[in-house]
Structures are given as structure tokens and as C-alpha cells.
């Protein structure tokens, strides 16, 4: 009985075979054969992740269906044995690198063992693997029945549909990772239907695997196949369009135009396809207005109506933002349209009429005004006229306003009965266009930008810009030009299609005034501002004006040249003939006069007295001067002058005497005089004496340089012989100034200070020269006399 049952199930397994690549090994379930395979097939390759499951069943049946899966190579031959009290062979098949067995019978009472043998085609090697399990612990829930996902703003929403086993688990697990990476992330759903992944990179692709969360009823939850989620489409396509009409392309019928829509997408590799939506601006719906294409362009044949075209990119994860472009109405080629007229009879009705040569019975009329969305209405009629607004369409209730221009299109459609548009592409042709007013009015503004150009002796050109449509308030019939000259006014009209006019037969050198206005059927509009101009003069008047202008310019240039020449001559005179200064008026060298030079020397000595330390009313000061004689233009003849010491003191009993020191030779040291050696001549203790007093004392000394001033004896002073100085002319003073300057440079500039004395800088070289010349008789100083005073504080 058992043998019959085994043969039955084996036969049933072969009948249900649906493998794409069946096992090639022999099905020998004998125990001895299996044991020999275990010992012989010790190879490690060819079988990976071998496992078996039992499928979930609704009822509590004693038997379930089992299935085994593993990973392997396509070129390898596999043999699967299942054993549950009996051994049987099961067919296998492969799909996407996963080997799966056919369903086999499993009893829930006994354990299940499965054996898999992998062998090469030439039987040079083989691999053995086995699996054992308890049926109640092998229940498989999954994989899912259907999965959908959608990406948006860095989020991924995963929607999962399960079979009946979904009632036995509450949640499922999503494993995901970036494409071509190894690390998996996991996130558990809040229910068994949806799971949302956050913080994803929009520009990257992701891989997903779905599996249920195991429960008591669903013990085995194998992961699903790896699902690749493409990147999120965050950018909108870039759209361009090309339009051709029947003038540019003769293959296109009049009333239609060829529109080629092209677009580009930055990450085109992530796009599966594009959706292009084409709709009329009037909002009239069509059966097909969306086109799906995998390319990057779409060619459409459209009428002259306005259209809105939008493009978006899509993939399995979602769609990109929509990019739109508008196709405007086209009414430039009015001459190619058929005869079509519109009469607005009231504020909610109008009548249409067209040529009888039209063979169509399906029409569509569109009307609009600037700034408004067009309104359309399809209709079926066999006549060549149609009254709109009295048929209860509800689309013309109080829509027409006075002084407003309305535009109309009449389209024909190739439908025999139903006139609603079925396909927006190549299903409509514009027959004619028209314009109409409910009520016309006169223009409320004048032509603008009036200009006068190309003025000659007898003509000029007037240009202007037209009046706007809103200000016309009717159909423009023309322009009225008013020209005035000396209270003479001429008016004439021009066509509405021109914006310039040439005035002819004008008087030369005459003033004119021009004004323009536009007019409609209701009357003339506002006049423009006056524009004045003067025609050119004759050639004779022009030549006279040129001569006068040339004379004036010549005079101006002559005056400028005279002024510049005077300036240049004045500068040349200064450079070529400089003025020679008079030495008598020069400040560099002055007359050497004794009285005048002593006047200069006296305040200098007084300043030195004030600058010396301690020279006040209670201090005795000794003044010492050394005269050194040198020639101005020859070597020195006289020996150095003896020093002179001046003792100043203030006593309560007697006034301070003024005692000059004994005149000694230069090699004799100077001695400080005693009180007994002081002469009866006194120097006032008050240093605020007048300059004349100090000057007289110095004059007395200069008059008697060899005499003794005090009772102290000393060597006599030998004066130098007088040098022979010849003054050749008034300019000899410059030579003296040069010699004085050279002598001052050669002489010492600062007197060495004796110990206990306060050093005082000597005066200028010129001062010393003045003192030498003023304090000696003629011939005493034949050169620069250097005056070196010393002040000793007692």
C-alpha cells in the first residue's frame, strides 16, 4: 500500500513539472545510494543557502505543500531528494540565479529531510547538501503578492499586498541600501500594508528587500527578491518648441500648423518615459490629450487656437515636476482664411456666417478678448450660418461689453456626427478669423511719439506710434494730420496701416506746426500735442551764415593767439635776459659801517649774557674775547689778539666795576683779576642798560687797543698791517662776501669751554666780520676777525 502511495506521488510530481531547466541526475532513493553520495560528493561549491519551507494553508490540514530553494550555477546539474518516511525525487527549475523545486507533499506528522546533489556535466565532481526540519516550524509566509513604491522629497513610501497569511502577522521589515553598496539598513513598518523610509538621497538609487516579521503562525519569513528603486526625479524638463505654418512648409494645410515640442532632462538615465499633455486654452476636453513617449520630442498638427503643453518625466518611483509651455493664437495669415464674419447682436448673442464651399458639418467657434481665457462651443450644422446665444448653451450670458474688441475663430472638424474633439492631434482646422464690437466709440487718446524727421527746404517726414487697442474703442479707419503755417491750416487723412507720412511743397525757412488724431466709425479722437519745426534755408542764406560764423571764429582764434604769444615772449625774456640785481640793495651783503655793525653786535652780546647761567644781579660775570686777525685775500700778518676779560659784580657798598683784563699774548694764560686790580670804571649791575652804553664801552676799547685798562701789566698788542684792498667797481662787495663766507667756513664754529665755564656759540661769520672791521683801526684786521667770546660765572 505504501509503495502504491509513493508511486502515486512521484507520478503526480512529474505531471506538475514546470521547470525551465530540469535536473539531469538519476532518481535513486535507495539508502545505500544516498550514503555513497555522502561519501563521494565532498566538493564545497555549487550549492549555497539551501533551505526548505512549507506553504501556509487556510484550513488545519494534515498535509501541506513543501518547497526547497538554493543558489547555484546555471551550468550545474542538480538532483533533489525529499524523504518523509519514503524517499522521492523532485524536479527543480532556475530563475534569476535562484533554484526552486516543485511543490512536494509534506505530512505534518513527521519530520522532513531533503538531499541535494550538484554535479558537473562530465561528472568529474559533485557536491552534497541536506536539510532537515519539522513541518510545523517550516511554515512560510511570503513573499508578498504585490509591491508599489513612490519617492517624494527624500521619502520612500512602500505599499505591500500579501496573501491570506497577512492576518497572522502585523508588521513587515524593509531592508534597504544604496545601490551597489554592501551595508543594509532595516526599518520596520507600523502595519502590514505600508512602510515609509525617510532621509534618503534623492539622486541615488536604492535596493529593497521585503519580508514579514515572524510569528507563531508564520515561522519562516524569507526575504523577497532585491527590488531596485530608481532615483527621485526632482527637476522639471527643459522645453523648446518649433512652429511651422503652411507658408513655411507646403506639406501643411492652411489653417493648421506643425508644432515640434522638444525637451531635455538632466538625469535622463533615471527616466523611464515621458508624459506629454496637450490641451486647448479654452478648456475644451478631448478623448486623447496625453501622449506617452520614451523619446525627447513630439510632433503635433494643431489648429490656430491657443494651446497649453506640459511635459513631465516618470519612472517607477514617481514623476518629476511639470514643465509647461504656451502656444499662442495665430491670426497673421488672414488672407489665407476663408470668408468669415461675425455680428454681435446683443450682450449675450452673436451670429456667424461663412462660405458655402465648406463641406464639413462639425464646427467649433472660439471667442475671447485680450487678457481673457478663450471660450469655445462646438456645433453641428449643415447651413453656412449659425445664430449663437439663443440655443440655451449657457456660455454667452452677458459676456459682451461695449467699446471692447472681440476675436473669433471658426474651426472645422472631420467628424460625421459627434462634433466634440476626440484627439487633440490633427483633428481640427481653422477655417477663418474675425473681429467684432458690440458698440464702437471714438478714440480717447492721440497717436504717440510724434516726430519730425528729414527736414529739408520744402519737405519733412512725420512719424508716430498707433493708438492702443484699448483706447481706440473701435476699428481704426485712418489718421487725420493737421498742418498749420501762419494761421493757415491744412488737414488731410491717411490710411490706418501707415505710421509715417512725408509733407511736401513746404516753404523754405518757414515755421510749421503739426497735430495728429485717429478716427473710427464713431468719430475723431483726441489731437496730439503740437510739434513745431522750421524748414531749411536756401543755399544763399546758408553761405552767408557760414561766412559770418567763419569771421567770428577767426577773430576769436586771433585773440587767443595774441594772448598766448605775449605769455611766451614774457617767459622767453626771463630765460634769455635775466635782470642783474644791485648789490647795494642786496640783503646778503650790507655796508660795513662801524656804528651799524656794533648795533648788530650789541644785542647779540646782551642775549649771551642772558643765556649764561647765573648772570643776574647777584653774580659776577667775566667776559673774555679773543681776536684772531687774518687777511681777506692774503696770509695772516698780525699775531693773535690778546684776550679781554670783563669782570662784572654787584656789591652792597660799591657798584660793580667794569675792569678789562690785561692784554697778554696768546701764550700767556689768562688770570682772574682781583678786586684791587679793578679800575674805577664800572659796568652797571643792572643788565637792562641801553644799547648805547654797551656800544660806547666797546668803542673805547677799539680806539685804544694797545693801552692798559687795568693796573695789571701785560704785553703790548701789535696790530697787523693794513691789507691792500682795491674796490674795482660796485660789484667788489660780492668778492668780499665770498671771502667772508670762506673764512667763516675755515674758522671754528664752537668755542671750547673751559672748566667751570658756560659755553656759548659764536655769532654768524658775518657778525664776526662786522665786529672785526668796526673794532680795529684801518689795517688792524686784514682778514676775517673771528670773535670768540667766553663767559665765566664767578
UniProtKB/TrEMBL annotation:
Pfam families, per the entry: fn3
Gene3D superfamilies, sorted: Immunoglobulins
Key words of the record: Disulfide bond, Glycoprotein, Membrane, Receptor, Repeat, Signal, Transmembrane, Transmembrane helix
Region of interest: Disordered: 648-715
UniProt keyword annotation of Cytoplasm present: no
Domain Fibronectin type-III as annotated: residue spans: 143-237, 446-538
Presence of keyword Disulfide bond: yes
Stretches with biased composition (Polar residues): 671-699
The protein's name: Fibronectin type-III domain-containing protein
Source organism (scientific name): Cirrhinus molitorella
Taxonomic lineage from the root: Eukaryota, Metazoa, Chordata, Craniata, Vertebrata
